[in-house]
Amino acid sequence: MSREHEVGAGATKTRGLRALPRMLRRIPGFMLKLAYMARFSVQSWQMANFLTPFQIYSTSDCASQLAKSGLKWPINTGTSTDEELLLAVIDLLQREPTLRERFPQPIAGGPSGSFGEWLLSDAESPFTVSQRYRLRELWKSRPSLAARRLWQHHDHLRTLIPLGLLPSWRRSLFHWMTHTARPAHGTPLSSILWFFAELEDAPSCGADEMWLDSPSWQAKHPKAFADGRGAFLEWIKRYLCKKPSELEGQSLPAPFIEETHVSGVNLFGHFCYPSGLGEAAWQMRRGLEAAGVPLAPRDMPASIHHDTLDRHGMRGPEVHPVSIYVLPPEHRLSEIHARAMSHPKANAKRVAVWYWELERAPDLWKSRARAFQEIWAPTRFIRDSFAATLDVPVRAMLPGVALAPFTARTRSWFGLSETTFTVLFSFDMCSVMERKNPLALVRAFRQAFRRGEDALLVLKVSRGSHDPESLARLREEEAKGQVLIIDSVMTRSDATALMACCDAYASLHRSEGFGLTMAEAMLLGKPVVATGYSGNCDFMT
Fold first, then answer.
1. Per-residue pLDDT tens digits for 189-214
2. Each residue's pLDDT tens digit, 419-454
3. Which residues make Cβ contacts (< 8 Å) with residue 477, sequence separation at least 6?
4. Model pTM?
5. Pick the CATH number of 258-396 from 3.90.228, 3.30.160, 1.10.3470, 3.40.50
6. Which CATH architecture has domain 411-538?
7. CA–CA separation, 412 and 422 (whole Å)
8. Three-state DSSP class for 396?
């Protein structure tokens, strides 16, 4: 081969290599994502095999890991903010190893544990009285919740680091949370540190949590929380744990043990999502509990941005012979179990509680309904709609409605006048505004109350950012006067307190499947004015 030919071949090869980045840019995004996931998984495997397990109570280990994410530790900035106060507790446990010897499981024990009682009540506590009060309230709200949601809501994270909660894999998970999730989601550093402290306090807690969120583990060890506990821990030690001694002496956890031997109900719903459908799931749960029915409640996460409650105690495995699903009919049964991270129990009787607002159900739901033995319709309006379309038994099953305990608020707490006659209407912007029909209510209110009269219409909306165009139309009406928009995702307590503050409740909806807020206003003794059509006619005259 000639020299010129060799050079030409080399040049061709070089040009081909230089063109490689352009070629890579043409690869579909999912291929790049797949490559990234594979690379990260390999790195995680290497870290799990060659690095010692991450020690949250080691100042040096914590500092070196945080340094990789550009963070300094310890953060000596005082205790003026809630974040600083929570970080100070972790720093204290790192600096004083005798405290961990004196108080086993200091963080996982909670505020009522031995360490919590000492920290919040003992004269030896390094915190002031006011700091202890703040810390007690913070601890009750579970500081680890934001970090815990990252694990529970990110399917790709559990794919990248499938064993991330086990001791030998936590270093990879810690790096992802501090380096990627903290800046991307605004997850507080204190939440991440408290989450890992809870895991380290009770090493088997990681295995238990993974079992609760892993359908494959539930299928392999269906009695991991009952009489198959020993076999489950032995499996963890043998195949998944680098240091078997880390799981020695773990006792049987409390949740969901007795239910495996007693017939009851598996209840699926949006328990952590503050919404009408979420409240319907809670009302079903309260009713079954009041009747003494053993329950295994299972939350199906909505989104990391919408879920506000802790899933602790709401991840029951499907152990009972009957399963009730208080969820939208848009979800297939297989999708529900995948998103709820629950392995379906064989031969369970499945009942769907479906809410719907129109006179006819979509034909698509006919095939989805066949996955259930029965459909429970919360009102006769919904029953008639489903009966015309579905070919499975449909029963009218009016839901129970009860007001949960709430903290009373003054009108000024919500920015309202104490003397103005106030009418309230509440709805979620994730719903269809044309069906909720608030603009018609605004027009009717202005016909009933002339300008200058001391009256106000309060439109309390949730998740206004979901429909910015409709929210802008409401803002235009607000600017004309007599209308106040409150765009806020409130707790159930505050939402009920707002309703209790108002003089009346109104809903000029075009159609409602049930009308929960109208029923709640009536329970509060408020006059309710509403459209005489659809689901609310089952309890209004």
1. 999 999 999 999 876 767 888 888 88
2. 999 999 999 998 889 999 999 999 999 999 998 899
3. 439, 442, 483
4. 0.78
5. 3.40.50
6. 3-Layer(aba) Sandwich (3.40)
7. 13
8. strand
